[in-house]
Structure formats: C-alpha cells, structure tokens
Amino acid sequence: MTDSRRAFLEKVASAVFAGMVLGGQAVQAEASPSRTPFPALPFRVSDGAEEDVLLRMQRDLERALRKPMNQRRWGMVIDTRKCVGCHACTVGCAMENKLPPGVVYRPVIDLEVGTYPHVTRKFLPRPCMQCDNPPCVPVCPVGATWKREDGIVEIDYNACIGCRYCITACPYQARTFDFGENWTDGAAKGLPGGLVLDGAKAYEELPNFEYGRQWQRAEGVIPKSPVGNARKCTFCAHRLEQGQLPMCVTTCIGRATFFGDLNDPESLVSELLARNNAVRLKEHLGTEPKVYYLV
C-alpha cells in the first residue's frame, strides 16, 4: 500500500468515526435544534483509489439538507446483486431504534430462485416503501399517520390508538405492532431463548429517538410510549435531521443500499436509476413507492 493510499484511508476512517461520535451526541441532545457539523470529507480521491460510496452519499445528504424540506424527495436504491443476506441492516436498525420482539423495520427476505439442481438464493431487503400515495394514511381514523413534505411517512405515537387499520392496509407488510414485549421477558420467566446478558434489561428500558424526540418505553408517560402503537421504518428521519445517513445504509457490508434525494439529478441514487433498469414492488397498485431495486 502506498503512503498516499494509507493516508487517504486513515483520513476516511477518522472522518467516519468522528461523524459517528458527534452524530450520536447530537441525536441525544434533543434540546438543541441545530445540527452538529461533520468533519470535512474529501472531495477527490488521489492515487487512483476508489471512493467509498458512503462518502458520496454523505455529500449528497449534506447538499439536500441545505434545501427546504418540500424540495427534497428521499429515496432508496437496493442492489439485490450485491446483497449477501448478512442481515447487518436488520440488526443495525434494531439497535438504532431499540426495537422489541415482533417489531422489525428492515426484514431481509430469503428467496430460492431456479429449479433443482440449478438453484441459487436471492435476498430482498424490505424497508417501508415511503409511498407517494400511501394506502396506510387514509385508513387511519384519528389521523395519526401522514406523509411529510419530503415524502417520509410518519406515525404520531401520541395520537395512535392501536387499531392496526394501517397494518392491514399496507400491501408491503411494512408495519408492525408493539405489544410491549421485551427480549428479557423470557429470561425472567425462565423460558428458553430469553436474554440473560448482564445489563440487557437496562438497555431495553433506555429511550429511543425516533422522529427526533425521546420516547420512554414505559406506560403512562408523556410523551407517550411506542408500546401499543403501530411502528415502521422512517428512513431514520431522526438521523437525517442530524446529517447522518440511515443506519441500514451505513451498516451494509456489501454496499448494496444507497440513499439520497431523488430530486437531485447529481445524487448517487439518481445516477443509479438512470444507468440501471430498476424495478419497484407492486407498482400496479399505484402506491408509487420510493424504494427501488436493481435486479
């Protein structure tokens, strides 16, 4: 490895690490509305080295955040040819949002393709599609779910009554229900499969920061707990507002998940859609999903 190549990699590692630390502090510092500035990222790669797509997407994100919200249109591109089925995105999402049993925002579907003996496996990550015409919104009897100006579909835990109409209406099974269970419940009851790790219960009682607010996982608290509500992927909206990419994007070991502003023709996601024959799930329903797949 040349000295310039080594210096570049050290600079990237330093920038990413600093961004993770600073970003984590910013997300928890709820009282401060301003975003924590990230270290300057390199705009050119010397010595013929290939730039990590995370750096490209980070610049796309920073550029998009300088625009008014109604001029952004967040979208995701998933390259199924690169997905190895490691489920790192699923685990990273669960850790970021402190998801309890039964609540999954980013499942990865394992598919068998072909006819024996000529078979192979394909993997299909399936986050919320963030539809432009979301069928989950009009069925909510209390208006607890809606589409933001930038296209992200949100749920107001304070308004949700847990009727689960939206779960039934979603054609992508992208919504789940929080029944108030904990991973440590089985251990407390002596059931097999329950977590017995030191500090596991304490971790589960920590608040999460979905939608940029602090949510305590307990009943009878204000603001309301997510327990008893429908829950879903939000493209990590709380991270976006702090200048960070969604957790599933940063944890993808195969660099198979791409994120950015579809309204920006210079963004990586726009470039990928222009160069490839992308498909969307159940387009015939007219939901206009903003998650695209390269197959």
How would you characterize this protein structure?
By secondary structure, this protein is α+β, with helices and mostly antiparallel strands. It folds into two domains: 1-50, no CATH class; 52-294, Alpha-Beta Plaits (2-Layer Sandwich). The protein is built from nine helices and ten strands. It has a four-stranded mixed beta sheet with strand order 8-1-10-9. Strands 2-3 form a two-stranded antiparallel sheet. The longest helix is centred in the N-terminal third of the chain and has 26 residues, at 3-28. The radius of gyration is 20 Å and the shape is globular. The model is unreliable at 12-33 (pLDDT under 50).
Give a nutshell description of this structure.
The chain has two domains: 1-50, no CATH class; 52-294, Alpha-Beta Plaits (2-Layer Sandwich). 27% of the residues lie in helices and 15% in strands. It has nine helices and ten strands.
* Biggest sheet layout: 4 strands, mixed
N to C succession of SSEs: HHEHEEEEHEHHEHHEHEE
| CATH third-tier fold name of the largest domain | Alpha-Beta Plaits
Radius of gyration: 20 Å
CATH architecture of the largest domain: 2-Layer Sandwich
Share of helical residues: 25-40%
Features:
single chain; about 300 residues; alpha+beta; Alpha-Beta Plaits; four-stranded mixed sheet; two-stranded antiparallel ribbon; 9 helices; about 25% helix
